[in-house]
TrEMBL record:
Domain of life: Eukaryota
Name of the protein in question: SS18 like 2
Family named by the database record: Belongs to the SS18 family.
Lineage of source species: Eukaryota, Metazoa, Chordata, Craniata, Vertebrata
Domain SS18 N-terminal as annotated: residue spans: 14-69
InterPro entries, per the entry: SS18_N
Length: 77
């Protein structure tokens, strides 16, 4: 199950921290590897479920990025 999947009743209650983001990025890496492996074996229809999870994860990450205030850069001396 994807770490990005949160049941409707818990949405908004999940804490987003560095560890969660790292796990999600690692999961995306694994999903991409599975998708490529299935496609290389000619089993494109078998990778659709992984593509859906990857898509959901990417939308989740994009939503977090959009909601995060921009950082101000420190001036370089």
């Amino acid at each position: 199950m994807s770490v990005a999947f949160v049941p409707e009743r818990l949405r908004g209650a999940a804490e987003v921290n560095q560890e969660t983001l790292q796990r999600l990025l690692e999961e995306n890496d694994q999903l991409i590897r599975c998708i490529v492996e299935y496609q290389n074996k000619g089993r494109a229809t078998d990778c659709v479920q992984y593509q859906h999870i990857l898509h959901r994860n990417l939308i989740y990450l994009a939503t977090i990025a959009d909601a995060t205030p921009p950082r101000t850069q420190k001036p370089v001396d």
